[in-house]
Design a protein that fits this description.
This protein has about 325 residues and is mainly α. The protein has 13 helices and no strands.
Length: about 325
């Protein structure tokens, strides 16, 4: 391993360590500040769930270049499957979440195989139709409450669960984007015809990204179900899919931290405006129009919120200096 590779790995390790340390500080700060207020904790928990949904949708729309508007349908699959397992079979929470995510990913694969051969508006219409089919199927399933809604779901999801899964989702999708598969998805986004000419199986990678995104949407649905303890088919309609799409657009296509930040901001803003029932949607729409006029490419425009290289290099130098001093002191004592 040459010196350049060692330096790159050292910098990546330091950046990851610092990132996890900052995330831990953020978590502890939030817990210290608002842990006694159930209302604010629920808002922040919902914001973390929306982070999972926005980041997973951005994998499909932003990084792979497809246009899906049926994300709430996959969320609904995961929500009802996970809720059914914990309510009817008393299944462990993590097992129910895993099965719900797997069910959503499987449905995503089955939907993606035929629809992802379409492009542009045709794909959007196909995913919209899928979302409505899921909603109608749930309405007609009396076993899970049908149009009356599904009640009796245990209250398990809290801020710690949602925050942890949001961080895990970001890390997994970031790793996927930086992998060979992720580079292939980016090639599909930039120029699908050129990618095919270079030997990239575009359908394979589109279906892969679509299935992964659907799986994480199902995970978010499971968390959502055990947060509210009540599910209704209207919670997974077309307007919900539009909400998640707005988070991606506002945060910036092709960015991970952008949609995550937008998910938090829009979730909190929605709750703050709830008391102004008559003006809420007007203010919300005006803000979105303003962002699109001033930053049509989104707040981060494909960039990421990351630690500056100077900070990372400074810490690496400090660690080297500390090790050098320790070595000298041990030699002197010897």
């Amino acid at each position: 391993m040459n010196d350049v590779t060692k330096a790159t790995l050292r910098k990546a390790w330091m950046r990851t360590t610092m990132g996890l340390a900052l995330v831990s500080v953020l978590y502890l700060g939030i817990m210290f500040a608002v842990s006694g207020d159930a209302y604010y904790m629920q808002i922040l928990t919902l914001a973390c769930i929306n982070i999972i949904l926005a980041v997973s949708l951005n994998l499909i729309n932003g990084f792979t270049g497809q246009f899906s508007i049926g994300h709430a349908g996959f969320m609904g699959v995961g929500a009802y499957v996970a809720a059914f397992l914990t309510t009817e079979f008393k299944a462990p929470f993590l097992l129910a979440l895993a099965v719900g995510a797997l069910a959503a990913a499987t449905v995503g694969f089955l939907v993606g195989m035929p629809t992802l051969r379409l492009r542009g508006d045709y794909l959007a219409i196909a995913t919209l139709g899928f979302g409505e089919i899921i909603r109608v199927v749930i309405v007609n399933l009396d076993r899970v409450g049908g149009s009356r809604g599904y009640t009796g779901i245990p209250s398990i999801t809290n801020f710690t669960w949602a925050f942890s899964f949001a961080v895990i989702t970001i890390m997994i999708i970031r790793h996927f984007i930086n992998s060979t598969h992720g580079r292939a998805c980016l090639a599909v986004r930039e120029d699908e015809i050129a990618a095919e000419a270079m030997g990239v199986d575009t359908t394979k990678y589109k279906v892969m990204a679509f299935s992964i995104g659907a799986g994480f949407a199902g995970l978010a649905g499971g968390l959502f179900a055990h947060l509210l303890t009540f599910l209704h088919p209207s919670s997974f309609d077309f307007l919900k899919s539009v909400d998640y799409l707005v988070m991606v657009v506002v945060g910036g296509w092709g960015s991970i931290t952008g949609p995550a930040a937008a998910a938090v901001g829009l979730t909190i803003m929605n709750e703050l405006l709830r008391r102004f029932a008559e003006l809420r949607m007007l203010v919300y729409a005006a803000m979105l129009i303003g962002i699109m006029l001033l930053r049509p490419q989104g707040l981060l425009a494909g960039r990421e919120l990351a630690l500056p290289d100077k900070w990372v290099e400074f810490l690496i130098k400090k660690l080297r200096l500390g090790k050098t001093k320790e070595g000298r002191s041990s030699d002197e004592s010897a």
